[in-house]
Every structure is written in structure tokens, then in C-alpha cells.
Design brief:
About 65% of the residues lie in helices and about 10% in strands. The chain is mainly α.
Length: about 130
């Protein structure tokens, strides 16, 4: 069951747990190196895994935005609030002043824009369907 709470709160919480409980965390530390058929090596860092996880959460959030429900408005309001918190943290907290956090904030901005855009498109479709039934 999908809740009206923005799921992007999970990456924000995980980021804060990592940076405050493990000071000096190197986001660019290599977790794995995968040899490619081309002969190149694909190195996967902590930041790569974290941002990939954040993008998967964004996918779920976009899918949630396609639902038609009265809770969508509440979800959008909370998404905007979460984005505002992330911007404030980025500007005011030293540990959040990283590219990883900035990209996570950008993902949150995409969530806000996509949520409103999808809701408007769904509403336009519903209005168009209602006018055809008359």
C-alpha cells in the first residue's frame, strides 16, 4: 500500500544517518569494480549506489503521482515541504554541502515538478472525459 508520505524522506534520512554517525565518510570510496566487455572497468562508489537508490525511490514517487486520490494533494504538499527542508539543510548544515546531497535535492525537485505536472494532466483528462459524457 502506498502512503501519502513522500518516500524520498528515506534517502534524506539515510544520508543524514550516514554523515552524522560516520563522520569522514568518503562518498567516493569504491565498493566494487566490474570489468566490462569493452575492457574498461566500471567502478561503483558509495555515492553511485546511494544516488541509484534515490532514483529508484523517485520512480516509485512518480508512479504514486499517477493515482487518482484525494490524498495526492497532501502528498504534494509534503513533497514540497521535504524539498524545502532539503534546500535549508543544504544551505545551513556543513555535512549536507556535498554534490551527493545536491543531486538528491535535485531529485526531490524533480519529484515536486513531476507530481504537480502529472496531477494536472490527470485532472485535464478527467475533465475531458466528463465533458464527453454530457
Amino acid at each position: 500500500m502506498l502512503t501519502p508520505i513522500p518516500l524520498l524522506i528515506v534517502p534524506l534520512a539515510v544520508y543524514n544517518i550516514f554523515v552524522f554517525l560516520t563522520p569522514g565518510l568518503d562518498w567516493h570510496a569504491i565498493l566494487a569494480t566490474v570489468p566490462m566487455m569493452s575492457g574498461a572497468s566500471w567502478t561503483i562508489s558509495i555515492a553511485d549506489v546511494f544516488l541509484g537508490f534515490t532514483l529508484l525511490i523517485l520512480l516509485v514517487e512518480v508512479l504514486k503521482a499517477t493515482r487518482v486520490s484525494s490524498r495526492n494533494i497532501f502528498d504534494h504538499i509534503l513533497s514540497v515541504l521535504l524539498f524545502a527542508i532539503a534546500v535549508g539543510e543544504f544551505l545551513l548544515v556543513a555535512q549536507a554541502g556535498t554534490s551527493v546531497f545536491a543531486l538528491m535535492g535535485l531529485v526531490m525537485l524533480f519529484d515536486v515538478i513531476a507530481g504537480f505536472w502529472i496531477s494536472v494532466r490527470v485532472a485535464q483528462r478527467d475533465v475531458a472525459l466528463d465533458s464527453r459524457m454530457d
